[in-house]
Amino acid sequence: MADIGTLNPLSLVPLAGLSARSTNHAAQCYIIDEAAVRDVGYVTKDKRVVVWLWNGSATDANLTRINGNGEQADGIGWDATPPDLLIQGTSQRIVITVTIDGPLEYEALLTFLSSCAHSPTLTIIGTRAPHLSGDIAYLLMPHNWENGLDESLAWKTDVLVAHDRTEQRIQLRTLPRRAWDLRLVVAGAARRKLETWLGLRKTRYLFSPVWRDEARITAAIVAGASIVQVGTGYLDFAVGRWLVVYDAWDHFEIRTITGIGINYVAVDAPFAEEWPEGSLVAPCRYGIGIEQRRVSRFTESVGDYRIRFEARDESAMPAIATPDTYRDLVVCPFVPSWTGGEETWDNKWVRLDNDTGVIEFDIQAIEPVLSRAAQFRLIGRVGIDTFLRFLFYCAGRLSPFWLAATDRGFELALPAPAGATAITIGNIGYEYAFSGSPAREHIEMIATDGTIIRRRIMAVETLPTGEEQLTLDSGLPMDISASTLNRCAWLELCRLDSDAIDLKWWGHDCVDATLPIVVLP
């Protein structure tokens, strides 16, 4: 036993996890200044962990391998390329990358193997955000057209309205989100396969034909060919996207489009088998179906499945190439139906009630703000294509356009000759109610021969006979009278009142659309 008042010599005890500088193990390899466990937190995008591997031995050494602990280390990589030389007394920088692929919760153990006597380890823990797996569900079961096919286009615009109703519109989403509501009535093996795809634990990509553009090949495809004979006009074929040739949900060939002609589509790889004339072909999209999926079961083997398919990597359809314009703004290329539409007038009044019985009002709009739902039925792919390009011009609530009102706004009281700069209409109180109204200073008249006349009203005068005379900004191009005019309407400057537009397809060449609009000052 030591004497009281004397000190025993301390012995050095190496502690695990400390760096080479803190221990005295010259023959070891260490991770410098790194805790044994690194928590990378919630991973929604790739995260990087930097480590320094120190060679404290008396000689140069080789990093021979980095081992991970199986599935826990899935989705974790590094920039080291063993065998890497570790110079004596120096350190090597290694970047560990934790990607979004792999288990949602993980405790990855990485072991650095080298010629040194010690093999350090690093534990990485964290959680990942759920995301789409690389698996694909091929939805080639045919769409049920009994209730049509619903398609939606959704832009995003920030609209700032001032007190005087002037607006500033900011586009927040340059490309629309495009989605289709699919209805698949399937039975037997197809139903069981679909159930498996929809019930997978991980969210997966969906692959579906664009059902409104399904067609049939006009000539047989021989094995080894890379050309598909099919009419492509106004269909959703695009270079870099995909097409499928098929005759059943489980018998198909998918190819990437490399070229498009009027009557053919070229693909990136030859077809493996022969497809007879009349086989089905359709442009395809990858997408997701993360919203609620529903099924109504008719029997133990038959079900009606409803899936919202949202296309991925949507591209912009070009706007109208040569649009009809008035005062440098696009005119809606179609006349809406006057049936079924509902109009509202709102002055944006604010009621100021001070609880004393006296009520005051703050009127934010001197004249009513007019809004309505314009309904269109489009038949034929030429017109449908024009309408879609018009929607892409509007880009949701971003761009204003001209649209004629759906009602007959006035009646011509007297004929007017070609070149006249004034017209006489039946008294509607224009001078009293509408004079100076931005929403009622432009008119559109359509003659029985199809001639469209658009003019701005510069002045109004009530005649002794009671009729009203409207002075126009330029002369008429032809003689007009009440009997030669099919349409006498107000021409309104509008914008869409919603960034989401729904289309109801009733087949390959018929679609209904409803555009909610608001008239601008």
Number of helical stretches of at least 4 residues: 3
Q: Please, what is the average pLDDT?
A: 86
Bin the helical content.
Answer: under 10%
Computed CA radius of gyration, to the nearest angstrom: 36 Å
From the helix content, strand content and strand pairing, which structural class follows?
mainly beta
Shape descriptor: elongated
- Tally of distinct domains: 3
Outline the biggest β-sheet: 22 strands, mixed
Q: How far apart are the termini? A: 102 Å
Quaternary status: single chain
Query: What is the percentage of strand-forming residues?
Result: over 45%
Low-pLDDT regions: 12-28
Number of strands: 35
Describe this structure in words.
The protein is mainly beta. It has three domains: about 30-130, Sandwich (Immunoglobulin-like); about 135-310, no CATH class; about 315-520, no CATH class. About 5% of the residues lie in helices and about 45% in strands. The protein has three helices and 35 strands. The protein is elongated and about 115 Å long. Mean pLDDT is about 85; it is low at about 10-30.
Secondary structure: elements and pairs:
Blueprint: E1 29-31, E2 37-43, E3 47-55, E4 61-68, E5 76-78, E6 84-86, E7 91-98, E8 105-114, E9 121-128, E10 133-138, E11 149-161, E12 167-187, H1 188-198, E13 204-209, E14 215-216, E15 227-229, E16 242-248, E17 251-260, E18 264-267, E19 280-288, E20 294-297, E21 302-311, E22 325-326, E23 329-330, E24 343-346, E25 349-353, E26 359-363, E27 369-379, H2 381-394, E28 401-404, E29 422-425, H3 430-434, E30 442-447, E31 452-462, E32 468-472, E33 485-496, E34 500-507, E35 510-519
Parallel strand pairs: 2-9, 10-13
Antiparallel strand pairs: 1-3, 3-7, 4-6, 4-8, 5-7, 8-9, 11-12, 11-34, 12-21, 13-19, 14-19, 15-18, 16-17, 16-19, 17-18, 19-21, 20-21, 22-23, 24-27, 25-26, 27-35, 28-33, 29-32, 30-31, 30-33, 31-32, 33-35, 34-35
